[in-house]
Amino acid sequence: MTLRVLIADDEQLARNELRFQLERFDGIDVVDQAANGPEAVTLAETLAPDLVLLDIQMPGLTGFEVARQLLERKVSSHVVFVTAFDQYAIEAFEVNAIDYLLKPVESARLSQTIQRVQRLVASGSPTDGTITENALEQMVRYVAERQNHRRRLALKMNESFLLVQTEDIVYASLVDEVITVVTTAVTGTSNCRTLDELHSHLDPAVFWRVHRSHLVNINKVKEIVPWVSRNYMLRMQDEKGTEIPVSRAQTKRLREHLSL
């Protein structure tokens, strides 16, 4: 049988990487890709894929909001979250996700998930069934094993690499598929292919994805500047006082965290 898969992620590179990994398996048909939450809902309703691979932090609707809408609309697709954030594992089960993969996705782990979904589809198992306690324990164990917040990060500078303390990182930005990392002392580039991959190596309680193109150290914010439509700009503690825009989706989180 052929497993029909929809990929939903706001990063083109992340979608391409996941598609490349999936194409290495037999019996996989990637039917389409979505770049935001509303698009994911529309495509899932229209195409009725067997599996939806969902990022969590997407514009328009989060991955959880997408999953809830699919449940409400009785879309029969199975849902697996693919994300850099380990703190959402338990909530994934509240929307009946059958698995939770951490970026960068390991091929062996992805293979296990694909095989599991293939068995569910072949057996005609419903997508709204009760998650077993054993499955919950397995996912919590997997997430615990994958927690790998680094204390140091290698930045490319000219022809060499410099190891910097992650606590000294001020922000990272993605421009033309190159990730530039600015610290309190130096600026370099990261070999990570996406901001999600870089974020997976950092503490998500400290480093926030405030915009699809920017990752900031919340402890290195010097000033919060009101911007258009009740959004904000973050003036950072680098030498230039760089201003980073906060997306609409992250504005609420910022207000709650800083009591704005």
From TrEMBL:
Q: Residue limits of the HTH LytTR-type domain?
A: 153-260
Which GO molecular-function terms appear in the entry? Answer: DNA binding; phosphorelay response regulator activity
One of the Pfam families matching this protein, by short name: LytTR
Q: Where is the Response regulatory domain?
A: 4-118
Which InterPro entries does this UniProt record tie to the protein? CheY-like_superfamily, LytR-like, LytTR_DNA-bd_dom, Sig_transdc_resp-reg_receiver
PANTHER family, alphabetized: STAGE 0 SPORULATION PROTEIN A HOMOLOG, TRANSCRIPTIONAL REGULATOR-RELATED
Protein's name according to its UniProt entry: Response regulatory domain-containing protein
Instruction: Give the species.
Output: marine metagenome
